[in-house]
Amino acid sequence: MLPYNIDHVAIAVADLDEAVQRFGELYGVAVQRREVVAEQGVEEAMLAIGGSHVQLLAPLAPDTPVGRFLDRRGEGLHHVAFAVFDIEAALEHLRSTGARLIDDEPRIGGGGHRIAFVHPSSFSGTLIELVEVEVDGA
Ligand code: CO
Questions:
Q1: What superfamily does domain 5-132 belong to in CATH?
Q2: Of 40, 53, 78, 79, which residue is the catalytic one?
Q3: Given Cys at both, which of 10, 33, 59, 138 links 55, Cβ 3.0 to 4.6 Å?
Q4: pLDDT tens readout for residues 11-57
């Protein structure tokens, strides 16, 4: 039930192509997976760094959560994602501690993983995503 790892740190960006190129030039990291997640209104690019990832997130339209985030705050840290083996157990644990869940039930996120978001008010102002991973970390 405890987080197994940091799955990714997500950064909201205005222009995904430009950000992917810049991260490649600055840090020498390459895109491992890039995909449109229409349900969340984003296109995301996962850059592998060690056993974890930086996720660059660009809105598909201004009137989406990430679009509004960029409008209010500009580019920057959007959320931190914890990898868990059993997302239902993790949600149940958080619920039992009084955490404020954005998603009561898991939904499907990027890479086909089951995910759920926890409200920033429960994590010192940081939006937290739970990502269910296989035991081997895939
Ligand atoms: Co994420």
A1: 2,3-Dihydroxybiphenyl 1,2-Dioxygenase, domain 1 (3.10.180.10)
A2: 79
A3: 10
A4: 999 999 999 999 999 989 989 999 999 989 999 999 999 889 999 99
